[in-house]
Amino acid sequence: MFKRIAFAAAALFSATAPAFAHLNPAEHGSFMAGFSHPLFGLDHILVMVAVGLWAATLGQRALMLVPAAFVGTMALGFAAALLGAPLPLVEPVILASAVFVGLMVALAIPLPLAGVAGVVAFFAFFHGHAHGGELGTAGALPFAAGFALATVLLHTAGIAAGLAFGHRQNDVTGGTLTRIAGLATALAGLWLAFAG
């Protein structure tokens, strides 16, 4: 069953081009525009689900702290963009985040919880800045609440997948499935970076 699902997912990703279709935040600065923003960009989905997977591999406190580090720092990046603070290389760093976080999950490199939180916080600042930079003059608070909630849900999906896989790296099957998901994330991130 898993092989069929993996094959179908691989076929789907190889047959489609990246779609960065969002409601235009400058025109639709609403909760729904913010909520839909991460859900309609493969780059956002990959990173946010992978952050959840990474948290699941660590377990315990990481299940809350790693996603919280991402969402909290993403909010800071959003605020910085609204205040007009420049940030270079936003889109390349967002794409790099999919590759890097995916590889960290795939390779299961042991890092302390603070290190993992720091890494995801670094990338989250760029994600938040991208959201704020696209907002224009629309309503910032409803938009921010929407994309924060969608981000939490994507992290939760990654955590649920990691737990369903038997996330612990000493669990051979669960560790293997989690590593495969991380590798798929990294490869999809590379594809997004070079397909456009």
**Uncertain parts:** 1-23
Cα gyration radius (Å): 16 Å
What's the multimeric state? single chain
Strand content: under 5%
Biggest sheet overview = none
Average predicted confidence as pLDDT:
83
Helix content: over 70%
Cα end-to-end separation: 33 Å
Structural account:
With 196 residues, the protein is mainly alpha-helical. The chain is 76% helix and 0% strand. It has eight helices and no strands. The chain has helices at 2-14, 31-39, 42-58, 62-82, 90-107, 113-133, 140-164, 172-195. Helix 3 packs parallel to helix 5, helix 3 (42-58) packs across helix 7 and helix 5 runs antiparallel to helix 6 (113-133). It is globular. The termini are far apart.
Give a quick precis of the structure.
The protein is an all-alpha fold and 196 residues long. It has helices at residues 2-14, 31-39, 42-58, 62-82, 90-107, 113-133, 140-164, 172-195. The longest helix has 25 residues, at 140-164.
